[in-house]
């Protein structure tokens, strides 16, 4: 995204400064994550919305700081996710709990959440604080829901979508809304971009879950099929359960044999469940695009629309 290259470069520099800690182990644990890179989807969305809504197409200092805060919150959630899912690699690098241990990883995640809260408070905007604080509550709710439904083949698509909102879409929805609050936009605009972020986030999660079945480990940055191993039942699997009862037995046995995971992936691929899951993701992408095209189809909305289409094309 050419128009925000400068902002993204500055974001990467600032993140290292913002996570500085006196304790060298804590610092190196946090830095490990940022060195692993990532797609920076959330800051990109914030920067593009900021430019879209600002008459002079600039990103304010507060909006830049918001982008940094959301990336720190996202990264903190990954540290805790990796512990819960017992994931050894992330983006091709050792996860924090693998490089150090679980205790350090938990503390590193807590430290990042605390740092994000500190910088959030310093924005001196109560509405933004309320909006962004909800994300951290939603993360916990999503993790609890996922834990309760672990290896539970009775899970419905509706429950899966709700859990996906808490774990992924809430962050995008709330950060998009907070961007508009910092732009002093009215409630209608705030609500529009909240919904835009929500639909984008849901599509992003569904696509991620499809890639866990269809992708290669080297492209995913984590082992393929790791959702199945961890009992995290996602859209492609849920949509296959009605057709293939053999899967229920494997889930009941918690995929105890490695060949079970490979067989389950093969079963899912031999149905049209991946296409059905993709259709659900596309529905959310179209709802997000509709919001932009209906009300915000200015000359500088092209990059935001391109990013939205790009998320869907990750599985083509």
TrEMBL record:
Keyword Transcription: no
Cofactors demanded by this protein: Mg(2+)
PROSITE patterns: POLYPRENYL_SYNTHASE_1 (PS00723), POLYPRENYL_SYNTHASE_2 (PS00444)
GO biological process per UniProt: isoprenoid biosynthetic process; quinone biosynthetic process
Secretion signal span: none
Family named by the database record: Belongs to the FPP/GGPP synthase family.
Protein's UniProt keywords contain Cell inner membrane: no
NCBIfam families: prenyl_cyano
UniProt protein name: Prenyl transferase
Pfam families hit by this protein: polyprenyl_synt (PF00348)
SUPFAM superfamilies found in the cross-reference section: Terpenoid synthases
Keywords from the named record: Chloroplast, Isoprene biosynthesis, Magnesium, Metal-binding, Plastid, Transferase
Molecular function as annotated in GO: metal ion binding; prenyltransferase activity
Record-linked PANTHER family: ALL TRANS-POLYPRENYL-DIPHOSPHATE SYNTHASE PDSS1, GERANYLGERANYL PYROPHOSPHATE SYNTHASE
């Amino acid at each position: 995204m050419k128009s925000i290259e400068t902002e993204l470069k500055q974001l990467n520099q600032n993140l290292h400064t913002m996570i500085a800690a006196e304790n060298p182990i804590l610092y190196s644990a946090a830095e490990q994550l940022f060195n692993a890179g990532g797609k920076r989807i959330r800051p990109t969305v914030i920067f593009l919305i900021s430019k879209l809504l600002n008459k002079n197409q600039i990103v304010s200092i507060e909006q830049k700081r918001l982008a940094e805060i959301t990336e720190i919150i996202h990264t903190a959630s990954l540290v805790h996710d990796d512990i819960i899912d017992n994931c050894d690699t992330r983006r091709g690098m050792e996860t924090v709990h693998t490089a150090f241990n679980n205790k350090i990883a938990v503390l590193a995640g807590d430290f990042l959440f605390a740092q994000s809260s500190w910088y959030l408070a310093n924005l001196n905007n109560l509405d933004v604080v309320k909006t962004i604080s909800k994300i951290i509550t939603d993360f916990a709710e999503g993790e609890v829901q996922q834990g309760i439904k672990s290896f539970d083949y009775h899970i419905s698509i509706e429950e899966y979508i709700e859990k996906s909102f808490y774990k992924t879409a809430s962050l995008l929805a709330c950060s998009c809304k907070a961007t508009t609050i910092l732009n002093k936009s009215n409630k209608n605009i705030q609500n529009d971009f909240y919904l835009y972020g929500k639909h984008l986030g849901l599509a992003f999660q569904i696509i991620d879950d499809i890639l866990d079945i269809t992708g290669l480990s080297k492209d995913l940055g984590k082992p393929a099929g790791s959702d199945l191993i961890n009992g995290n039942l996602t859209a492609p699997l849920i949509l296959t359960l009605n057709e293939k009862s053999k899967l229920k037995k494997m889930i009941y046995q918690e995929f105890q044999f490695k060949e079970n995971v490979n067989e389950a992936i093969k079963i899912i691929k031999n149905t049209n469940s991946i296409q059905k899951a993709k259709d659900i993701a596309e529905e959310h992408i179209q709802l997000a695009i509709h919001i932009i095209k209906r009300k915000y189809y200015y000359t500088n909305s092209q990059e935001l629309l391109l990013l939205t289409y790009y998320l869907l094309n990750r599985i083509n």
